[in-house]
Amino acid sequence: GAGVSQSPRYKVAKRGQDVALRCDPISGHVSLFWYQQALGQGPEFLTYFQNEAQLDKSGLPSDRFFAERPEGSVSTLKIQRTQQEDSAVYLCASSGQGPTYEQYFGPGTRLTVT
Amino acid sequence: QKEVEQNSGPLSVPEGAIASLNCTYSDRGSQSFFWYRQYSGKSPELIMSIYSNGDKEDGRFTAQLNKASQYVSLLIRDSQPSDSATYLCAVNAGGGADGLTFGKGTHLIIQP
User: Does B97 touch chain A (CB under 8 A)?
Assistant: First the structure.
């Protein structure tokens, strides 16, 4: 079946612009996660949704980062007033209802802020 | 602060040999452990999960977990050049759906 999809795959933004990154999880997966991966590093957790509820946003680096999943399916990660340090790959993952909660990743969106 | 430590490598292994990748974690209460493979420019791909002490085998891969030592390892038997990638260790502190804490990854090179 279809995996996790993300769009756009690449995004170039000028410093100060707002961007929106989309994630479409595996059909039927109730949990959705966003991660940020800098070059040469492992992914770092940003936020987590169970259906439409955002249960953990402890990893969001600043109040410029905002995520939503209004209908419990597609999610959008929005970054306002982008800064150069926001340049990274943004990964979305989804998992089912258990018992193993294995997370499957989408292809990622590479964001470059110039 | 939950931490997951891996040797960044590169780890160079001859083709056909066993590659051994190691990971330690700081949160003693961690419940779920995962190994992901990441090719350059691609996203992480789940290859193994392990939840209880001991060994878990899947094809050429064996995951080993020792909760007392807070240690997870991945063995790759009969290593192939296509196994060359970065291997990420990830830990879930809780038993359910939760954000993963990743190590920085070990870069594995299989020499033909």
Answer: yes
B8-19 pLDDT tens trace: 999 999 999 999
- Do residues A106 and A91 touch, judged by C-beta distance below 8 A? yes
Distances (CA, A) of B76 to B15, B52, B57, B112: 11, 20, 10, 15
Q: How far is CA A35 from CA A113, B62, B64, B76, in A?
A: 18, 27, 26, 27
Q: Would you give the DSSP letter of residue B21?
A: E
- Alpha-carbon Rg for chain B in angstroms: 13
Q: How many angstroms away from the CA of A16 is the closest CA of chain B?
A: 26
Please, are residues A15 and A114 in contact by the beta-carbon 8 Å criterion? yes
pLDDT tens for each residue of A3-34: 999 999 999 999 999 999 999 999 999 999 99
Q: Are B6 and B21 in contact (CB under 8 A)?
A: yes
- For residue A15 the two structure tokens come to 């410093």
The position carrying tokens 């949704």 is: A49
Count, in order, helices (H) and strands (E) of chain B: 0, 11
Residue B92 Cα, gap to closest chain A Cα (Å): 10
| Chain B neighbors of A107, CB-CB under 8 A | 42-43
d(CA A84, CA B75): 39
